[in-house]
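Now for our target.
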Amino acid sequence: MPGAAAWRAKPVGRGSGIPRCTEGGRRLLCFRSGSAYALDAADGTRLWRRAVGGPDANGAPALAGGVLVLPTDGGRRLVGLDPASGRTRWQREQPTGTETRIAGDVLLVTGADGAVTGVDGASGRETWHRRLPGRGTPALTADAGGPLVHAATTSPDGASTQVTEFDAGTGGTRWTARLRGALRPVGSDGGALVLLSDDNAAAVTDAVVRYSPASGTTRRTKLTVPLTAPQAAVHGRVLHLLAAGGSLEAVDLRTGKRLWHLETAVSRGSAPVATADHVYFSAPDGRLLAVAARDGRLLGQTPPRLGAGSGQVAGTLPAPLAEGAQVYATAPDGSVFAVDGRTPATW
């Protein structure tokens, strides 16, 4: 089988910031320093570029309803672009304090009052508005892009969490449950919801919770060692956790057993991305790392890609994208690059 092309696209836009990209239609659709642009996913050739927002605009782009959605002005304005040409399809002003998440073809806008609004991604028009069960502002998690979404609202004392599954297209509730502890959904496993249990007093995550709505049963498995601010990826029946400080481990969701553990020495990584063979994540210096999904061996890493703005601390690092044989990542020097995901030892 021929190898996937490795390439590096030079920075686009003035100023600093790590590009944030999504994949769609054999294109990488990216946003950095107020510039939205499209790259050919096969070789990195730039297809179009469009100025959107000011030079400090560096939001995460997403596709919804066939439209590229960009948050600008600190999230107070959403812009929908044609991913093939970069032309504006719609614009939408947002009240201060709102958060937006994409679920399939729908934008879910959570207001400061805790209500959720469904917005059609293709047109930018509101389709529904409602308050979900529970008090406070819910944290929303769309599993693999929706259309089913989980909303979690933790009680002020952290003793319990109200979890609701609803349809992103209509806002209709499918089920709701109150579970013990401060929990956050991170994925699903065979119809069951996977959540992490946070000990807020100790500022760590101490357990994995698997809740089955069909039977109403909950299984809680304590982690071997509590993890600080872990980010998660579920692939099949395996949960991968990357904590602050670089601890990476895999947990079997059916048995609760820790399958392997690796100290990567990465101070703060991106969210991990898991495939059948590999776990990928990015480091603050622009390295892309690959770990064997079966046994946790470090298989390879790219060189650092630092830039003039590398001393600035990003709130979150963009996760890599794994599409077929290629893996795409971004770096502090403003570049976007691709490598063959099957051969990390050659990076």
